[in-house]
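If you are new to this repository, start here. Below is one unmodified record pulled from the training split, so you can see the exact layout before writing a loader.
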Amino acid sequence: MSKFLHVLIVEDSQDDAESLVTELEQNGYPTIYQRVDNQAEMATALNSEITWDIVLADYYLNQFDAITALQFLQENQIDLPFIIVSGKIGEDTAVEAMKAGVHDYIVKGQLARLVPAVERALREAILRTEHRKAQERLRYLAYYDLLTGLSNRTLFLEHLSRQLAQSNEKIAAHQECFAVLVISIDRFNVIKYSLGHDLGEQLLIAVAKRLEKFLTNQDIVACIGANEFAILLTNLENSHEAFRKAEEINIHLTVQFQLQETTIFSTFSMGIAVNNIDYEKPEAMLQAADTAMHAAKGNFINSSIFYNPQMHINALEKLRLENDLQQAIANKQLHLNYQPIVALNTEKIEGLEALVRWKHNCFGYIAPEKIISLSEETGLILPLGQWVLTEACSKLVTLLAQLRDKSRSLIMSVNLSGIQLSHPDLLSQVDCVMQSLQIPGKNLKLEITESTLMNNTSMVFKVLEKLRERGISLCIDDFGTGYSSLSYLRYLPIDTVKIDRSFLSPDIDNKNYDILKAIINLVHSLGLKAIAEGIETTTQRDILRSLGCEYGQGFLYSYPLEGDEVLSLYDEQGMGNG
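And here is the target side for that same chain:
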């Protein structure tokens, strides 16, 4: 409050108004006042530039009255201390006035209570203002995202709930088409952790502003997660318009962001849910769009994908598989198959590759690549990898003991994931298995994918060197599918390179022949040996032989076998005890 008390006096007697002002000023309140005696004058005064502190009102006026003045304030949501200063109006009338919202009642001619009443009313007004601001702050915290200033998930769901209710009230033939979009910034964590949290937050703010600028007033945009936004698009003609708008938004967002002195390019994944499915709750429609967004993240063709119910089924199936995989590892319900690796010139078995298998009680056999991706996503790759290494090496010990020709070598190949390779306990785990089973390093080969070797090469190099010191052979798996740097390949301590099956078309056309020849020549120039996987025909075998490829595996020689079947195959080659 300024040094002057601004008083709006509702009074039709100028003398009575001046008496009130005199009483206030004599008690230390310099006063600026305006007297009004009808609603029109009161409205004009309230709309003036003066910020009023309090209203003093006579109960009865010729053209007006205190209760009508109070109601006018309430209807216009103006919260001012309101004190009636009037002749005797009766106790019942005074009580009703207090119930209506009057803060105090003073009898004219008895103004000794005026100043104390005004002071109390002003204190209460300050408390009400503070309480209102606190309530507004709490509401803001409950319904808005602090960083971007956008609506949050709670408020977005309220908007969506009203939209669903309005849609359900309309006749089906005239239902309005609307859609929910969920947008995620791709690789946001990479941006945040490489460029810093501050720049990451600036990117979120910039995305929010760009969305607000692009969308219309009837569209609702919200920040619903760490790097996720939701949009409610209404008044659409059909689902095609929803997709068109999603694509326009994507184009708008993928323009570079200039943040401080840093230029950031980012892609975005979008999921779209249209009200052509009967969503009973707003949470279900938002979840549908979110599910579609995650499907878009794994789609390298379309950045915007419509939700369909099969996505939900797939998500539930994946969740169940993740849980069941954890139990399967703990309860040893997985098993290994072994695919022979043969020397192409002699067609004798030189080694085996251990391949994990899982027969689910509902879904049947789960694809190996699905087992690996699930285990990597859930962090189960570490216990799974340890189990595979131990189990494969145990089988190796059994087979070595049963070989008739002890001069023959047998190597067990075990796949190693990037997560395992970067784990600090890898070397101690390998040592523990080798020592407990008394396996020479020369009988163990670890296969690492090409992409894993290209990530964090300095760390990878050190770990591979330690493994080589233990006599373990090392192989690059799926060679040709990644982005190898030949300069790194020269220095990696590897022994063999496994050529990916994608280069072995049924008849190996001229293009693939040239690629195979180039890869094998490269491998040999580095002093390494080549293994080809996926050999299914004698034509493929003969071409690989002619190119000097040393080893191969595939259905031409054998499908992946159970442990006991491996020994039978050795017997056929005269290697077992028979």
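Two things worth knowing about this chain: The longest strand covers residues 177-185. The chain has a mean pLDDT of 88.
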